[in-house]
Amino acid sequence: MLPPGQQSRVGGLQTSLSLVSSDPRLSPEEPRTNSDNLRESPTESASSRETWPTADAIAAKKMENRKTEMDCPDQSVIRRVSSADKISLQDIARERVDIICEKMHHLPDEFLEELKNGLRVILEGGNGSQHREEFFILQKLVQSRSDLTAKTLIRAHRVQLEILVAINTGIQGFLHPSISLSQTSLIEIFVYKRCRNIACQNQLPAEDCTCETCTNGNGFCNLCMCVICSKFDFEVNTCRWIGCDLCSHWTHTDCAIREQLICMGPSAKNGAGPSEMVFRCQACNRTSELLGWVKDVFQHCAPSWDGEALMRELDFVSRIFHGSKDPRGRKLYWKCDDLKEKLKSGKVESKAACRAILMVFQELELDSPKILENTESGRLIAPQEACNRIAEVVHEAIRKMEIVADEKMRMFKKARLAFDACERELADKAREAGKLKMDRQKKKLQIEELERIVRLKNAEADMFQLKANEAKREAEQLQRIALAKSDKSEEEYTSNYLKQKLSEAEAEKQYLYEKIKLQETSRVSQSSSGGDPSSMLMYSKIHDLLYSVPPKEDGQSNECHPFRTNP
């Protein structure tokens, strides 16, 4: 049986979906969310990888919608929803289908898209336990209702049906705008008549299987889901999945190892043959041999793997055959571990490792007839042959021990070289540290010398400042003395000047008086002889001028002519 690369897996959507198992046998105490699946096992984490819009993308979409509403305020006003008309996810999960459908017909598309985005955020589980609790409440409300049948859901609104299916299955892909399933398909998925894997979409039970696992009505699909965890993913051409050779049901390798379904048992091809590693299918309770399964996977798919994929597949094989006790299983386990170490250390390329593992499968196929022949002969081996086989085993052990010893020696030499390099580097660092210490001492001495110079300069600056302050005080004192002397000399000059002017004015007054007196004398003499009237008028003016102006004003008028002298 080939690896899980069947048509239902290869075709269709090539992205991973968020999964929450709808199996009622699971514990109802825990919300079945993606974050829980992610921590359970590597297989379940593979089935829970998200490629749907994240919370950041939804937030960005909301911001874009708000910006659009801001750009078009009229439209935002028209599409505003009153609080009485609004509905929540709890209302959809709780209320009757026809009531919610009628309300949704009156709601704008933007509000319905917000509802879907809110449920996507909850399924994303970004807020941890709070979102898991919200999802658990919603799923419990939906799954506890008996009125959600195919007849009632046919009257449901499209968005209402998508939300109900997403809550019931825990898959947020049904809310994604790029995925559009018919209403009939959504109803069949809700009532477990169609596979919830969007890339599969087979009618249930798939291929009309009548086993208990397929007929228990929990939505299990034997074409794409694990029998144990009821989850699916899109991994193909891999040892991640183990298929039953008889009932063709699939199981995650990690789930099978966890449930101890991979163990030693009689050969599936020949019940009387030697024990080997087998897989016991939980669906049909029959066994399938694993060595041929792994060989078919590697022969058909290994040439297309890259180094990382080959490393992952070798890890799966080594985990499958870890507890093997038959020679072929042990040999395959040792070879896988050896190739993993070489791939990690880069000693061998992925192509060479692929060729090596395929050669191992060919050798194991050649060894198989010998083991069967020895078993059929009642395990009676001649002493010489037994000695030869023991010698081969001893030689093989010695060869492996030599290989390990050589590897250890190489590792020791490598470590020794690294140690010597570290010693040299340490010595260089010690010399550099000594030089740095000497430089530090020199710098310290220089700094101390500079500090002494600075202290000296500061003392000099203080001394010069003191002298400058004293000089300033002396200058101010001299300035005050000079101002006092200047004021005194100015007063003396003014007094002397006024005295001089006063004496000049007195002298001029005396002169004029004498002149007037002389003129009066001449006038008297002229009057007696009949004088001139113009002479009398001039005499009168001069007399008025002399006796009408006070001496002070005469002195002030003379100040305007400091160079005036007596005639």
Automatic annotation (TrEMBL):
Its main location: nucleus. Residues 433-488 form a coiled coil. The keyword Coiled coil applies. Residues 1-54, 548-567 are annotated as: Disordered. It is found in: Nucleus. It comes from the Eukaryota. Residues 26-42 have a biased composition (Basic and acidic residues). It holds the Pfam family PHD_Oberon. InterPro entries: OBE1-like_PHD, OBERON, Oberon-like_PHD, Oberon_CC, Znf_PHD. Keywords: Coiled coil, Metal-binding, Nucleus, Zinc, Zinc-finger. SMART domains: PHD. GO terms for biological process: maintenance of root meristem identity; maintenance of shoot apical meristem identity; regulation of gene expression; root meristem specification. One of its GO terms (cellular component) is nucleus. Residues 1-21 have a biased composition (Polar residues). Residues 225-285 form the Zinc finger PHD-type domain. CDD domains: PHD_OBE1_like. One of its GO terms (molecular function) is zinc ion binding. Probable transcription factor. This is OBERON-like protein. It comes from Glycine soja.
